[in-house]
């Protein structure tokens, strides 16, 4: 495979090229964690897509990084200030009371999901996206980056199940496990 290049997503079309496909990503457009449960349920996919496009074009810092291979968008990782993700705040499987104490700190950013297009999986795209997310958060003023990966253990999970990443992916990038809110789940952090 040709070299994977990753940069903060500056064009909504690049994110849409990765996300607008059959499956969960094409129904979510990376809005699952950015909306409350009722607001998400009430929003059709085209509204979610427009919301993502508006955030990409209207923000000081992009809400994610995009991976390309020979100029074609093939991967996406969501990364933004943690207060932008209300679903995480309220999820007992993704946080703990101790971690909620500093919830409103805009210097703590979160990596909430990875999407890699079919045909490019198991080729290092997610491994390229995570360091780019770290650099994007650092360049945007974050002092800490947090993730919510799965620890699959012996069971085999589908790519849809792995959208949060794995503990091994985050550990390889230097993150430390700081909490285990539920079996098979972890909260990881990297001090920038």
From TrEMBL:
Keyword Transferase set for record: yes
TM stretches of this protein: none
Chain ranges of the N-acetyltransferase domain: 18-192
Domain of life of the native organism: Bacteria
Pfam families xrefs: Acetyltransf_1
GO molecular function, one term: acyltransferase activity, transferring groups other than amino-acyl groups
Keyword annotations of the record: Transferase
Identification of the protein by name: N-acetyltransferase GCN5
Organism: Cellulomonas xylanilytica
């Amino acid at each position: 495979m040709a070299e994977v290049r990753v940069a903060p997503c500056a064009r909504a079309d690049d994110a849409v090229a990765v996300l607008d496909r059959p499956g969960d990503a094409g129904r979510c457009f990376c809005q699952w964690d950015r909306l409350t449960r009722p607001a998400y349920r009430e929003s059709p996919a085209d509204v979610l897509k427009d919301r993502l496009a508006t955030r990409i074009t209207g923000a000081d810092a992009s809400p994610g990084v995009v991976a390309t291979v020979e100029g074609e968008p093939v991967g996406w990782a969501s990364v933004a200030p943690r207060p932008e993700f209300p679903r995480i705040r309220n999820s007992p499987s993704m946080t703990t009371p101790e971690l909620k104490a500093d919830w409103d700190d805009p210097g703590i950013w979160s990596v909430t999901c990875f999407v890699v297009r079919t045909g490019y999986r198991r080729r290092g795209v997610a491994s390229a996206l995570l360091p780019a997310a770290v650099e994007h958060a650092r360049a945007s003023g974050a002092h800490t980056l947090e993730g919510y990966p799965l620890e699959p253990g012996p069971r085999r999970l589908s790519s849809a199940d792995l959208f949060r990443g794995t503990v091994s992916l985050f550990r390889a990038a230097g993150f430390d496990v700081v909490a285990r809110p539920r079996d098979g789940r972890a909260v990881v952090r990297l001090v920038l």
